[in-house]
Amino acid sequence: MLGTGLIKGMAQTAKNFVGSYQGPERLVTVQYPEERLAPKENARNFPFLVFDGDDAQKGLRCVACQICEKECPPKCIYINKSKDKKPDYIGKPQFYPATFDIDISVCMSCQICVEVCPFDAIKMDKVFELSTTDRFEALLLHKTELAKPNEYFQELHPTEAAEIDTRFAEEKLKAEAKAKADAEAKAKAAAIAAAPKPEPAPVDGSIPTPVAPKTI
Amino acid sequence: MSFSNSGNTGGETVIPSSDSPSLNGVTAAIDFDEPQKSYSLLPKQNSEVPGELLEVAMGPHHPSTHGVFRMDVVLDGERIVKLKPVFGYLHRNHEKIAEGTSYLGSIPYTDRLDYLCSMSNNWGYALTVEKLSGFQVPERAEYIRVIMAELTRLVNHICLVGFLMQDMGAMGTPLMYAFREREKILDLFEAASGARMMCNYLRFGGVRCDLPKGWLDEARKVVENFPRFLDEFEALLSGNEILIARAQGVGVLGKELAVNAGITGPMLRACGVNYDIRKVDKYGIYDRFDFRVPLGEHGDVFDRYMVRVLEMRESLKILKAALRDIPEGLIVDAKAKSRGLRPKVGEAYGRIEGPKGELGFYLISDGSANPYRYRVRPPSLINLTILEDMCLGLTIADAVIILGSVDIVLGEVDR
Amino acid sequence: MIPTLEQIKARIEQSVPGARLEIIPNGSPANQPSLLVSNEHAVDVAKFLRDDSELRLDYASNATGIDWLEKVVKEKVKVKRMVEGVEKELEETVEKKTPAYLEAVYHLYSMSLKHGPIVLRLRTENRTDKTHLPSLTPIWRSCEFQEREIFDLYGIIFDGHPDLRRILMWDAFKDFPMRRDYVAPDDYEYEPTPHDAVLEKAKCHFPIVETPEVKP
Asked: Does the beta carbon of A23 lie under 8 angstroms from any beta carbon of chain B?
């Protein structure tokens, strides 16, 4: 009979209309600014730089190797390498980025910088409310704006952060153990070198200060 | 501070002088200053036909054209006498960009081809690079790829049906139902890859990261609930008198023409040609799944709608099996390399059955870190070849739904 | 089962008299060698491939252009030379110049017999003035837009194409953007990004216009 299809369809719309009051199955949206859905753990938006410790500029994990700058498909990362070195998280002197800018008006959130970073220094943020009135300067994020503490990263991506933190702790332990062993070996060598000398050992019992290793 | 760009406002381009090296003396072969091939659509006025013909440019800002597509239509009253598609409004020279980017760097750009189906675009590209460099893909990654590609097919087909109904004048309702279901799948994509649409998830020899905990259960839930929605959707639409009246017998495409014009995907199968690359090439692990290829009979708009709905049901079958069988294991092959990939000198053409048709990638490597030639075979563009043949003699309202049933995404048409 | 490319070559040579064919090997693991066809017989060869009962390549999937620049290939050649009165065989490197040309590539499949791909290649004489190739659109209509695209981006002129106009670029555009030596005209609107060469370039391109500063 002509019209049955229409009536059936109307029944469906009525079902959906009523159903939308009853469960998330038929109403998947929320009233946005007031209600917010928790972001997914893997969600990504724009990159930021992770630092350890309290000082944002001292603790940056980035060593200005410029791999991300080279691999970035739309070329939105600008890095200037520093001239001097600063100690990193295990105390090894490293270069650091003198400038590190990301033009997020160009960035396409592809996460390739995160993937290629061998130091886990750059990670993806989830902040999406970034609208500004200035198209150019305000969308160019500098090192100071990009640096976020490790705690923030742990909050954003807990699984990934935990993994990285354990790895770093292990590395640090290893480095410390190695430094210790090196120092001991040096002290021993120094002691052996000092041994044939006829001078008597210091009587006050002071331990010979270990020579700091030049390189680790 | 601002820059005057007065030299750029009149649509006038600055032409490289004729001694510019890039022209290479091509001017000898093509005289640019000679008036180009006449581009007036209006045929010679036939004195026997009363009234006059009307030339209408539909688009690039027409709501029915799914983006910045334009068709120049010549109308006799309401009948279409001639129709020429005009492309290029969204052209961003994807292929040229890829020639200057590393193999890895092109993956996020493939997301932006057909922006509804980023996962299958990734797969097409990854498949071709794997062919070019001989990488293997581990079992688990193959399953993940199949799951993602089939979810993408669901997303694409459900959107297409929604938009098609919108074109027919069913304002909003079916489209919103479709988007509601799409939302659930996009949430899955976001949980797995981090982004809803620009997933950038597949890598050469595998996928980028493993599925998060609980993802498979979520996916199973979505797949289980999907058929119920499809039933509702079909109850709403398939038997609807208006849909039948508008769609049946409209935009008929013959088998021979479809094959000759290189039409692929649901468009081709609606004409009754049994050609599904998942069955023909058996790429990935598609030979392990039991599914059927829905075929149409008449090649009209209604068949195209029906083929897509049925294809969704087959996709659900594949999804169910894949979500059941997915093993644990590696997600990227140990020998595969993404960064700094330099394949041997050679070329490869790889293709997959994208939701819109055959999505092919053609890569030529000269041994360097960038491809020498990178070509996308866009199904949307080639499916438009026969748009004029389908529309001639019909009314302009039919042209709108015929275009809707072709299923184009301008990001892919213009690249 | 599809015959090998050698068999196909032999069969074409039999049925299209005078056709010059050459098999181009492919070094990648994809193992898709291709068949270079002489231009004047290309249409006949294509027709044969489409209509032959064993091949039935009724579906031209992909048609595309490639720009090959002049290349210098170094080859080691053994030469006989008189050295100190004795004839010796010496190895000498000879620099060979491969000519520059444009190439159109067609990937053919069979929908009825479900096999493929057979790769056809057509080459122009050079890339400056003799850039004509026969159009295969009369054989496979799927080449219509793709050949237009090749014409648009590479400048190969397809004789016999029903509607050879620019497709992606606008009609008034000159030059062919996908050629390897294409230099982008310096005419687009630069956005003043805070970094870089782009700004410098923009400055010399567009004279700075002093705008009175608007203060809120």
From this structure: no
As for the ipTM of the complex, it is 0.80
pLDDT in tens, B233-286: 888 888 788 888 888 888 888 888 888 888 998 989 998 888 989 888 888 888
Cα separation, C190 vs C199, in Å, equals 8
Chain center to CA of A32? 29
Q: What gap in Å lies between CA A136 and CA C192, rounded to an integer?
A: 7
Residues B383, B356 contacting (CB under 8 angstroms):
yes
Q: Do A103 and C196 touch (CB under 8 A)?
A: no
Length of chain C equals 216
Whether B195 and A44 lie within 8 Å, measured CB to CB: yes
Return the ∠ at Cα A142 (arms to A150 and A92), rounded to 5°: 50
Domain that holds residue B303: 94-414
Domain with residue B297: its CATH number is 1.10.645.10
Closest CB from A9, A40, A72 relative to B240:
A9
In whole angstroms, give the CA distance from residue A47 to residue A111. Answer: 8
Grouping H, G, I as helix, E, B as strand and the rest as coil, residue A35 is coil
The two three-digit tokens of residue A206, written as one number: 């002071």
Q: Are C158 and C147 in contact (CB under 8 A)?
A: yes
Return d(Cα C174, Cα B253) in angstroms, integer: 36
Rounded CA separation C161/C140 (Å): 11
Number of domains in chain A: 1
**B224's tokens:** 């289980």
Q: Which CATH superfamily is domain C5-205 in?
A: NADH:ubiquinone oxidoreductase Nqo5 subunit (3.30.460.80)
Which residues of chain C make contact with B34, given a CB cutoff of 8 A?
none
| Matching residue, tokens 């501070």 | B1
> Per DSSP, which regions of B310-415 are E strands?
346-354, 357-365, 371-377
Cα(B383)–Cα(B404) distance, integer angstroms: 12
CA distance B23 to C155: 10
Do the beta carbons of residue B108 and residue B198 sit within 8 Å?
yes
pLDDT tens-digit map of A157-172: 888 888 888 888 888 8
Region of B284 on the Ramachandran plot (φ > 0 left; ψ -120 to 50 alpha; else beta): left
Q: Would the CB atoms of B364 and C66 count as touching at under 8 Å?
A: yes
Whether residue C195 and residue A136 make contact (CB cut-off 8 A), yes or no, is no
Q: Is residue A63 part of a domain?
A: yes
Domain limits for position A89: 47-153
Spatial CA neighbour of B156 closest among B415, B407, B412, B413? B407
* Residue A197 located in a structural domain: no
Peptide bond into B212 cis (omega under 30): no
